[in-house]
Design goal:
- By secondary structure, the protein is α+β, with helices and mostly antiparallel strands.
- The longest helix has about 30 residues.
- The protein has a domain of about 290 residues: Cytochrome P450 (Cytochrome p450, Orthogonal Bundle), CATH 1.10.630.
- Strand 1 and strand 2 form a beta hairpin.
- The N and C termini lie far apart (about 80 Å).
- About 50% of the residues lie in helices and about 10% in strands.
- The strands form three sheets. The chain has a five-stranded mixed beta sheet with strand order 1-2-5-4-3.
- The chain is built from 16 helices and nine strands.
Length: about 450
């Protein structure tokens, strides 16, 4: 009986503490729905489609509102004007990256995606310079991507028009481009090490977009003390980092500081230049984290957009011109997480890309969203799939070039044939949290 009383008192104290913390900070924050003790607004959010929930809240509370994920407040910025003001107008203030516990568990705040402060600035500046030196935005990299596109077409021809799931093949091509920049090497699509690497990257992307991972982000203690798919994510990250470390060691043995071959060589040379700087951000651990980030950012986002592109072309065979911008507008990255003065802040990119004033019927795939009355391409300030401001995607130029060259090469080489009637093709994402994961599908690539 005493134990029950103690338990009830303990739970009651936790609830009261939660209520006090939420109410004490509420007056300083934008309006929002009333949170429940401990869980906050989680039960009012559809974790399978967070952007849809954000849209509903914005209609009630305006373009800037507060949600509680657990006991922690998060300010949500919704709509073009508010997002542009936050990321572009106050880019420096909102350049910090918000907390993502599962990733912090693996990289300890290193790398380029989830680092902050001086560490982030130095690694980002170095990475941008190095990527440009190796051809990002230049003809040399375009030639490399075109060569990979030819390898992709050759692999697709190997299906001989039989039904195939394009997920793996469409992931190999952008991953190989990243490999050529980081390792100065591309892999055969049947290479065993390459297959395992692709499997780990693809599996992590799927798991990180599940509702369970959002729960783990709200309650980080679950990561340490409960079983679940998050354990698989950590195991996969450990494999990727060990793979990268192996490549780093190979590079160290054959390094020529006067003739850097790739990103790893450049990083190792930078490490040597700063070996007497005890506060240097250029360490082996930082190199592994950064290379892992480049793989994650440069492989799954591009391959997912390619998969959605082909799926939408199957759904809309009447579209004869590539609506590349509309692929990214239709199913973009959902949101961007940052922090400001200690408070987590989410800027909803989907709310901008799905603005119904700029894009009539935004839920409908329509390349006409980016055409003027004469049928010419029309630029839109609302098109920001790579975000804007200080934290915009480092590899935007690379991704744009890959998407265009891969898609056009495929469409010039094949007729796409669906296995079902186009009206029966489902395009709704199977996961819709940080990114949109398309449903699995099969198609035939018929050589022209």
């Amino acid at each position: 009986m005493d134990a029950v009383v103690i338990l009830v008192l303990g739970v009651s104290c936790l609830l009261l503490l939660s209520l006090w913390r939420q109410s004490s900070g509420r007056g300083k924050l934008p309006p929002g729905p009333a949170p429940l003790p401990l869980v906050g607004n989680i039960l009012q959010i559809d974790v399978r489609d967070i952007s849809k929930s954000f849209a509903s809240f914005s209609k009630v509370y305006g373009p800037v509102f507060t949600l509680y994920f657990g006991t922690k407040p998060t300010v949500v910025v919704h709509g073009y004007e508010a997002v542009k003001e936050a990321l572009d107008g106050h880019g420096e203030e909102f350049s910090g990256r918000g907390s993502f516990p599962i990733v912090e568990k693996t990289n300890s705040g290193r790398g380029i995606l989830f680092s902050n402060g001086r560490k982030w600035k130095e690694i980002r500046r170095f990475s941008l310079m190095t990527l440009r030196n190796f051809g990002m935005g230049k003809r040399s990299l375009e030639d490399r991507i075109q060569e990979e596109a030819r390898c992709l077409v050759q692999e697709l021809r190997g299906t001989r028009g039989s039904p195939c799931d394009p997920t793996f093949i469409l992931g190999c091509a952008p991953c190989n481009v990243i490999c050529s920049i980081i390792f100065k090497k591309r892999f055969d699509y049947k290479d065993e090490d390459f297959l395992i690497l692709m499997e780990k990257l693809n599996e992590n992307f799927k798991i990180l977009n599940t509702p369970w991972m959002q729960v783990c982000n709200v309650f980080p203690a679950f990561i340490d003390y409960l079983p679940g798919s998050h354990k698989k994510v950590l195991k996969n990250f450990a494999y990727i980092k060990s793979y990268v470390l192996e490549k780093v060691k190979e590079h160290q043995e054959s390094l020529d500081i006067h003739n850097p071959r790739d990103y790893i060589d450049c990083f190792l040379i930078k490490m040597g230049q700063e070996k007497h700087n005890q506060n240097s951000e250029f360490t082996t651990e930082s190199l592994m984290a950064t290379v892992t980030d480049l793989f994650i950012a440069g492989t799954e986002t591009t391959s997912t957009t390619l998969r959605y592109g082909l799926l939408l072309l199957l759904k809309h065979p009447e579209v004869t011109e590539i609506g590349l911008n509309d692929f990214q507008h239709f199913y973009p990255l959902n949101f961007f997480i940052s922090h400001f003065q200690g408070t987590a802040l989410i800027t909803s990119l989907t709310s901008v890309l799905h603005d119904d004033q700029e894009f009539p019927n935004p839920e409908i795939f329509d390349p006409g969203h980016f055409l003027d009355e004469n049928g010419n391409f029309k630029k839109s300030d609302y098109f920001m799939p790579f975000s804007i401001g200080k934290r915009m995607c480092v590899g935007e130029g690379l991704a744009r070039m890959e998407l265009f060259l891969f898609l056009t090469t495929i469409l010039q080489s094949f007729n796409l044939k669906s296995l079902v009637d186009p009206k029966d093709i489902e395009t709704i994402p199977i996961a819709n949290t940080f990114g949109h994961v398309p449903p699995l599908y099969k198609l035939r690539f018929i050589s022209v």
